[in-house]
Amino acid sequence: NLLNDAFFYMPEGTVLPEDGLLHTENAGFAKTLRGSICVCTFFVSEKNWKNDNYHKLYKKNLEIAEKWLTREAKRYGSTITFENIYPLGDTAIVIDKIYGLNETDPDAYGSFRKVLKSMGLSGKEFKKKIRYETACENIVTNFIIDKDGRSFCFLDYAGTNPDDYHDFSWLFKSGWNEPIEAGTIAHETLHAFGAFDLYEREDYRKEQSDAAKKYYPDEIMFSGGYGDINKSYISPMTAWKVGIGEKSKALDFYVPDSWCF
User: Per residue in 194-239, pLDDT tens?
Assistant: First the structure.
């Protein structure tokens, strides 16, 4: 299955914090992995998506991911509950082009703008709609894409108020036209709460992924829980980043590069 990535939308003129880092933990729609969490799901396709079986499988895997997240959070003394809402039901938002596997999107944020246009909403209106349709303490937004591809988590932080930071996931089929896996859903959900990838990437040192492989070989942000999420876990590193763990001794031998928010 495909590894996942994180993508950050930084509009022109954005001013980064003084330390140059992107802080999403304890900010925005998904603050900490505690309390009530609303998962808001939309289906996106290039055509009228009529696949009730796929939708059912997504919902089943979402439930598996939520049970796993609940169990892992409990290990760190955190109690979480989930509410799943589908503002458009199973009706797909139709846009004219989705860039999938082995395709290069010249404007990765462009597809999201097309979704907003299809819904007749501006970015601010969309966030307001999501914010006020639920009473949950935290909100995670999933866009389920009718195409094979590499899933990733967006961060839209246009503006200066951290409470307006909006993390949302662009979740493709897992490859070979198969439903998105529970491990991928959990992985991207944790990105929304501030977790970062532990597997090897081009944009940070290989030593870091080697350390993660040594100390956290089955961690959800390293292996992603592919195949069987129940073989994976949340490490002290990830627990700290999502607000349910302490700054542990793990940081003594595993120090994230500065881009890790």
Answer: 888 887 766 556 776 787 788 888 899 887 677 789 999 998 888 9
The DSSP bridge pattern shows strands 138-148 and 35-45 to be: parallel
Per the rule left: phi > 0, alpha: psi between -120 and 50, beta: everything else, 234 is beta
Which burial class, exposed, middle or buried, applies to 211 when counting CB atoms under 10 A from its CB (0-12, 13-18, 19+)? middle
Is the Cβ–Cβ distance between 190 and 32 less than 8 Å?
no
Query: Taking the CB of residue 52, how many other CB atoms lie within 10 A of it?
Result: 9
Beta strand segments in the chain, E: 5-9, 35-45, 80-85, 92-94, 138-148, 152-156, 166-173
DSSP secondary structure code for residue 233 in this structure: B
Better-predicted residue by pLDDT, 181 or 252: 181
Distance, CA of 145 to CA of 107 (rounded, Å): 17
Contact 229, 70 (CB under 8 A): no
Residue 183 tokens read as 């491990």
